[in-house]
Amino acid sequence: MIGARRFRSIRFRLSLGIALAVFCVGTLFVGLLYAWQANRLVEPVLTTRQVLIEDASTGRQFETGIDVLLPGDVQRAAMAQLEIDAYRKALDELRRAAFVGLVALFVVSFAAGWMLSGWVLLPIEQMNRVARSISVGDLSRRIDLAGPDDELKGLAKTFDAMLDRLQQAFETQRRFIHETSHELRNPL
User: Fold this and answer.
1) CA end-to-end distance (rounded Å), the chain
2) CB-hemisphere CA count at 13 Å for 165?
3) Which end of the chain is more exposed for a tag (fewer CB within 10 A), N or C?
4) Residue 136 DSSP one-character state
5) Is 113 exposed, middle or buried (0-12, 13-18, 19+ CB in 10 A)?
6) Of 166 and 74, more confident
């Protein structure tokens, strides 16, 4: 029962919201980075050249009409393909590492959100403790929240003002009952 209540708490929801926001921003950032790097991959293109042949008898050059791959071009293309394959492998490793990193980011941001929300909600817990300790017989306790003049301090002041009004109403009721009982005991 306590565990289920913890999952419905404001602290848990704040922590989860912070973790999800950080996770989504991180995922978007890593995804864009991955897409940008993946688009930078350029497939090697084998280029062909027209070979000019020189006629030995006339010394004239003419095109053969045949596209030829020169040995150096094949070697450059093979090296470029090897580089692309290594780059793809590095991108795959980056994707795996990014997934693990994003899971770790979610866990760490949830823990940070848990601590941050606990710090933010501490005044509410203090108000809750004081409110539980106030009884009908003793309305003299006040929350008197310390700290910055923010929404929570405003709420505490409102509760304190309400307790003042309740205390006055109970005092007025007590005096009325006391006077009425005195009058009833001593008729005329």
Assistant:
1) 61
2) 6
3) C
4) S
5) buried
6) 166
